[in-house]
Amino acid sequence: AYISKEEIDRVNEPLEGSFEGIGVTFQLFKDTIIVIAPVIGGPSDKLGIIAGDKIVKIDGEDATGEKINNKYVMDHLRGKKGTKVDVSIKRGDKKELIDFTITRDKIPLNSIDATYMVDPKVGYIKLTRFSKTSMKEFHESIEELRGQGMQDLILDLRGNSGGYLNVAVDLSDQFLSSGKLIVYTEGLRSPKQDFSATSRGDFQEGKLIVLINEASASASEIVSGAVQDWDRGLVVGRRSFGKGLVQRPFKLPDGSVIRITTARYHTPTGRCIQKPYDEGVDEYYKDFKKRFDHGEFVNADSIHFPDSLKYFTPNGRVVYGGGGVMPDVFIPIDSTRYSDYYTNLRRKGVFNQFTMNYLEKHRNGLSKQYGDVDDFKAEYVVDDGMYNDFLEFAKEEGVERDDEDKFYYPDEDIKIQIKALVARNLWGVNAYFVVINQLDTELHDAVDLLKDGKMFSELNLN
Known about the structure:
The structure is a single chain. The chain is 36% helix and 23% strand. It has 462 residues and is of the alpha+beta class. Helix 9 (350-369) packs across helix 13 (411-427). The mean pLDDT is 92.
């Protein structure tokens, strides 16, 4: 794979655990930069910039209109630590702009989006990437959950496309006893190299479920494969992506990089994580769509494995190779997330903009009324008046709803989505997942499996 000099930072930044800039997450809405949330403790947060603020000028230059895109925002707001940038903010209905001079700083880029107790005895951790800071974050999350009474754990790797190999090994090490093989690499001209567990595991006891889906890849597959192969826990969801290549980077004189494949990842039982290239590169990249069209995401019976791809765990369980990790418990995809109505609401930024408009009027009152996200989740209701305002706002933005949409994406689901975004703007991304996960059937099924415990006993999982 070839990566240009311009792309290197963008590719590496999520894995470094930080970036340098003003410390906000943003969204473009009608050619305007809207602050979704300032990074807590970052330079923008310290100056008093809040969610919903519109950045209309940068260094005296108008920052609205057709020229505004993600690249423009990144180029103008990010920069070296210690450098300054002037921004003018439009806040709510105030006519006067608010001017800020922001000194850029190093901004943490967390790899764990959510840590909370999903049940009185069940902890939940959502890891979005395997970065340099992941293990520090993981240990802090485990300590926090144990302090709240956690006995069992759900590790959510859905949509996690991977990251550093050593972090995948370290995370797997937290669940496995000393000496157990985690993963090995082997290539045509690369000798076999084993990576094994140590004695420093942070969660070697307690029931464990790893959630995966078709977008879980690479490092995610190393962890889920090791957990499955050693009968340490259950893997729940849908077959993972199947990306298991070891690539060595070679830097070129112009600063660009070529990554050369030197080996492949194999799980402890010998399964190759990488899906085959047998039908050529074009077919390889079409595999995801073929799996969708074939019904693999909605029906486990659509997946067939020859006996040659059977492998056996120490407990005698059958696991399958052939690319990716096949879950122990299959859960079909939630098709409502692919409805045209929901897609258009997201694509046009209707959810976020409606929430911002609402919070401009109600932020202070909500902050005083609800002490934390748990109180908010239990007590706050998106009433019919607010919901009708949302539907009307969506219609004004060109997204209309018909009776069929009500079937595929019910009213209550939309209300919870709005509620979750309000929570995120008040308490951060963790609060978003605390609320939105009420709609997560895969997570609910995982909790039920842990509480029931029967499958763990029958399979003698440890």
